[in-house]
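Researcher: Here's a chain I'd like modeled. Treat it as a single chain, no partners, no ligands.
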Amino acid sequence: MSLLIADKLAAETHMNTVQLKVENMPLMSQYYQKALGLSVISESAAGSVLGRGAQELVNLSTAPGLQLPARGEAGLFHTALLFETQADLAATVLSAAQYDQSLFAGSSDHLVSEAFYFSDPEGNGIELYWDRPRLKWNWTDKGQVAMDTVYLDPNKFLSTHLSEEAVARQSRAGAKVGHVHLQVGDVQTAAEFYVDVLGFDQTARMGDQALFISAGGYHHHMAMNVWNSRGAGPRKDTLGLGEVLITVPTHDEVGKLVERLNFAKIENHHTGHELRFKDPWNNQLRVAVG
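Model: Modeled as a single isolated chain. Structure tokens:
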């Protein structure tokens, strides 16, 4: 299905806070503070919201009694935190690598970005990355961005970009949720939902393995893959991903999305201020005005 321009998400659309359901709140809160340099922005009996400055990044919600998701289930692949400079990225990579509850999972040059991968103590994937300037991204005439996975030497990156100043300002340096990567059951169904219904643009696709989508010409705001979850059905209620927040610029954008969801007969709840619905794998999505 080919969408009209009016059916596309606004160019100003971006990702926002990711909610995680956690079992051990003290352990997880300490991890995001000590390993990733986040600060507690708000706290209640239900959980904690952490971020950098006033920018909320991760919402840790207490979920006693829930089990960890099985490896083959749909859900979160990783939450990707975007840093403004390579020095700021290096400072957080260093603290994450040195924290004893942190699991380093690799590093890659993706042509559009440089990225480092970790897992938190309950197995939630985390990407820490920096974007190359947009003028250096290469696009095909079909609107697809050139991305690759090239080995990135973490020690060389740190020796090149780490500075005492960056380490000292780590908790104050800007960061935001750049993209969210999900595990799904199949890529075609993901494309039909996220591109054809929600109105994202497809920016890259790896056959039936992975899909990358965005609004406004970003390399990707979301991605979906089947590397660990091919054939997965709807999620159970487990630890891990609770909700993904997507921010749009106006209430009109929310209203247009409601119309597209209703046309596609997808159940949704619109309060007038924000919109909640689920993707085909029961991943909870929330859209609100930023």
